[in-house]
Amino acid sequence: MDISxxxxxxxxxxVFVAALALFASAAFSADTIIADGAPTTLPKAKEAxxxxxxxxxxxxxxxxxxxxxxxxxxxxxxxxxxxxxxxxKIGVSRNADTELRGALFSLNWQNxxxxxxxxxxxxxxxxxxxxxxxxxxxxxxxxELRFSGSAAPEKILGVISGQEAKALRDSDKVYWTPxxxxxxxxxxxxxxxxxxxxxxxxxLRGVSHLFASAQDGYLSKDAQYxxxxxxxxxxxxxxxxxxxxxNNGKNDEDAWGLTVLLNFPYNANYIFVPWYTxxxxxxxxxxxxxxxxxSANDTFSADVYRFxxxxxxxxxxxxxxxxxxxxxxxxxxFTSATTATFTYNVExxxxxxxxxxxx
Length: 359
What we know:
The chain is mostly beta strands. It has three helices and 25 strands. The protein has two domains: 2-226, no CATH class; 240-357, no CATH class.
């Protein structure tokens, strides 16, 4: 399927969103789907026979974005649920300069005998598919680019020549790679022996994080980007420090607690909850869950993530070294402005406990 993506700016969120326009029900099976907005075309790439280098090449560099916060999907749900909307928004554009704080996209070139090869992996956690924005300031015409996605690593797309990639750049010299399945895209760049690696000047500009992909026809009915705007939200002031208490309201475990943050200016329903505790060896441990979709005015559920990263005092701080992993789920049910129950299933441990807000 040839698919043309375009980008439009969301005035409310100040972000770019990738869109697919549906002009009729036949568009579900159309060979080409066109989107509204300023054109940024993602070309179809033929399937290549193989990589130039072995799949486990040791010279690959990796860049990982942090998981998208739930509010990044709010603009999509709002626009998709509007009755006058003609376009189904399927993703958001992520800016490497701002999100990774200018982390370098370094290519580690390896001599392959008949030239030089570099490979990079770009990850946007939990994406159904991604396309990568590369700012190509210089690239020999004879260069070759190949791509694959983590959901179907055996499917290698290419070959896109350096000449073709440069012809598809926008006015800012940004080339969008073909969309691939899964949260990670692998990019391989080959330079023939008569070309020096210094002649390739490429910078990571960002990614398009897709909430749907070709595997689900881009339009799975239960996809989060198609869900209606939340009808529920907090009606009391829950922001504060929460601790575990027994049935009599007395604190009986000092080992951990929650910080509940609400009333963000951009989204009154958004809740951000850092959860601090200790692991089995007594080492401090932090979890985070967040979002803006409440199942009732007093009940919020979300996935729980564990984060790790470099020393906070390091300078300059390398945001690209921060990593996260989804480790479970949690539900907060507020029974009053100062009491709640907390149910979690995290890293093999399940429990429901009583909480009280510190006054």
